[in-house]
Design goal:
single chain
Length: 146
Protein backbone atom coordinates (compact mmCIF):
# COMPACT_ATOMS: atom_id res chain seq x y z
CA UNK A 1 0.00 0.00 0.00
CA UNK A 2 2.95 2.38 0.59
CA UNK A 3 3.54 2.64 -3.18
CA UNK A 4 -0.14 3.19 -4.00
CA UNK A 5 -0.16 6.40 -6.08
CA UNK A 6 -3.64 7.42 -4.87
CA UNK A 7 -2.47 7.31 -1.24
CA UNK A 8 0.63 9.34 -2.08
CA UNK A 9 -1.49 11.92 -3.93
CA UNK A 10 -3.92 12.07 -0.98
CA UNK A 11 -0.99 12.75 1.36
CA UNK A 12 0.13 15.63 -0.85
CA UNK A 13 -3.43 16.99 -0.94
CA UNK A 14 -3.57 16.96 2.88
CA UNK A 15 -0.41 19.08 2.90
CA UNK A 16 -1.91 21.34 0.22
CA UNK A 17 -5.05 21.93 2.30
CA UNK A 18 -2.94 22.47 5.45
CA UNK A 19 -0.76 24.96 3.58
CA UNK A 20 -3.80 26.95 2.45
CA UNK A 21 -5.57 26.86 5.82
CA UNK A 22 -2.49 27.87 7.83
CA UNK A 23 -0.89 30.04 5.07
CA UNK A 24 2.17 27.82 5.45
CA UNK A 25 4.43 28.59 2.50
CA UNK A 26 6.96 25.92 3.51
CA UNK A 27 4.24 23.28 3.34
CA UNK A 28 3.01 24.59 -0.01
CA UNK A 29 6.55 24.61 -1.41
CA UNK A 30 6.67 20.91 -0.54
CA UNK A 31 3.64 20.10 -2.71
CA UNK A 32 4.18 22.42 -5.68
CA UNK A 33 6.73 21.71 -8.38
CA UNK A 34 9.21 24.59 -8.63
CA UNK A 35 8.04 25.23 -12.23
CA UNK A 36 4.34 25.10 -11.36
CA UNK A 37 1.83 27.56 -12.78
CA UNK A 38 -1.01 29.26 -10.88
CA UNK A 39 -3.97 30.37 -12.97
CA UNK A 40 -7.03 32.25 -11.72
CA UNK A 41 -9.71 31.57 -14.33
CA UNK A 42 -12.26 33.82 -12.60
CA UNK A 43 -10.47 37.09 -13.28
CA UNK A 44 -10.74 38.78 -16.64
CA UNK A 45 -8.17 38.76 -18.04
CA UNK A 46 -7.03 35.42 -16.64
CA UNK A 47 -4.34 35.85 -13.99
CA UNK A 48 -1.21 33.69 -14.33
CA UNK A 49 1.49 33.64 -11.64
CA UNK A 50 4.74 31.82 -11.02
CA UNK A 51 5.34 30.14 -7.66
CA UNK A 52 7.57 32.88 -6.24
CA UNK A 53 4.82 35.46 -6.76
CA UNK A 54 2.08 33.13 -5.48
CA UNK A 55 4.02 32.21 -2.33
CA UNK A 56 4.67 35.88 -1.52
CA UNK A 57 0.90 36.51 -1.70
CA UNK A 58 0.17 33.55 0.60
CA UNK A 59 2.85 34.75 3.04
CA UNK A 60 1.05 38.08 3.46
CA UNK A 61 -2.42 36.58 4.02
CA UNK A 62 -4.10 36.31 7.39
CA UNK A 63 -4.60 32.57 7.73
CA UNK A 64 -8.10 31.12 8.03
CA UNK A 65 -6.78 29.12 11.01
CA UNK A 66 -5.79 32.29 12.92
CA UNK A 67 -9.33 33.60 12.42
CA UNK A 68 -10.87 30.33 13.62
CA UNK A 69 -12.65 29.88 10.29
CA UNK A 70 -14.37 26.55 9.86
CA UNK A 71 -12.10 24.35 7.80
CA UNK A 72 -13.93 23.19 4.70
CA UNK A 73 -11.95 21.28 2.11
CA UNK A 74 -12.61 18.16 0.13
CA UNK A 75 -11.33 16.04 -2.71
CA UNK A 76 -13.95 15.54 -5.39
CA UNK A 77 -11.96 13.36 -7.79
CA UNK A 78 -8.53 11.89 -8.34
CA UNK A 79 -7.93 10.72 -11.90
CA UNK A 80 -4.71 8.77 -12.32
CA UNK A 81 -4.00 9.23 -16.02
CA UNK A 82 -0.62 7.49 -16.02
CA UNK A 83 1.81 6.30 -13.38
CA UNK A 84 3.41 9.77 -13.54
CA UNK A 85 0.39 12.00 -14.22
CA UNK A 86 -2.83 12.76 -12.33
CA UNK A 87 -5.68 15.27 -12.52
CA UNK A 88 -7.36 16.22 -9.26
CA UNK A 89 -10.51 18.23 -8.54
CA UNK A 90 -10.63 19.73 -5.05
CA UNK A 91 -12.80 22.36 -3.42
CA UNK A 92 -12.22 24.51 -0.36
CA UNK A 93 -13.33 27.63 1.44
CA UNK A 94 -11.05 30.53 2.29
CA UNK A 95 -13.49 33.19 3.40
CA UNK A 96 -15.01 35.07 1.70
CA UNK A 97 -14.48 32.72 -1.29
CA UNK A 98 -15.37 29.17 -2.31
CA UNK A 99 -12.69 27.68 -4.58
CA UNK A 100 -12.93 25.03 -7.29
CA UNK A 101 -9.38 23.84 -8.06
CA UNK A 102 -8.20 21.73 -10.98
CA UNK A 103 -4.75 20.45 -10.04
CA UNK A 104 -2.39 18.61 -12.35
CA UNK A 105 0.19 16.50 -10.53
CA UNK A 106 3.33 14.87 -11.92
CA UNK A 107 5.49 12.25 -10.29
CA UNK A 108 9.23 12.83 -10.41
CA UNK A 109 11.81 10.92 -8.36
CA UNK A 110 8.97 9.06 -6.64
CA UNK A 111 7.26 12.22 -5.37
CA UNK A 112 3.96 13.72 -6.54
CA UNK A 113 4.01 17.49 -7.11
CA UNK A 114 1.42 19.98 -8.34
CA UNK A 115 2.63 21.32 -11.69
CA UNK A 116 -0.47 23.43 -12.38
CA UNK A 117 -3.26 24.95 -10.33
CA UNK A 118 -6.17 26.34 -12.30
CA UNK A 119 -9.09 27.55 -10.27
CA UNK A 120 -12.39 29.39 -10.27
CA UNK A 121 -13.97 30.97 -7.21
CA UNK A 122 -17.31 32.34 -6.11
CA UNK A 123 -18.01 34.67 -3.24
CA UNK A 124 -19.69 32.85 -0.37
CA UNK A 125 -22.38 35.54 -0.32
CA UNK A 126 -23.36 34.36 -3.81
CA UNK A 127 -23.88 30.80 -2.59
CA UNK A 128 -26.99 29.54 -0.81
CA UNK A 129 -25.21 26.63 0.84
CA UNK A 130 -21.68 25.44 0.21
CA UNK A 131 -21.40 22.59 2.68
CA UNK A 132 -24.26 21.27 4.79
CA UNK A 133 -23.78 22.36 8.41
CA UNK A 134 -23.42 18.73 9.53
CA UNK A 135 -20.82 17.93 6.86
CA UNK A 136 -17.78 19.94 7.89
CA UNK A 137 -14.82 18.19 6.40
CA UNK A 138 -12.24 19.25 8.97
CA UNK A 139 -8.75 17.86 8.35
CA UNK A 140 -10.01 14.74 6.61
CA UNK A 141 -10.32 14.18 2.91
CA UNK A 142 -13.62 13.19 1.35
CA UNK A 143 -13.55 11.18 -1.87
CA UNK A 144 -16.42 10.81 -4.25
CA UNK A 145 -14.59 9.35 -7.24
CA UNK A 146 -11.27 7.78 -8.24
Amino acid sequence: MQNNPIIKIQQQLEKYFDGLYFCDVDKLQGVFHSDATYINATDDPILKLDMTTYFSIVEKRISPASQNQLRQDKVIAINLIHDQLAMVHVECVIEPKYFYDALTLVQKQGEWKIISKVFHYQLLADQLSIFPKDNSIGKGISHTQF
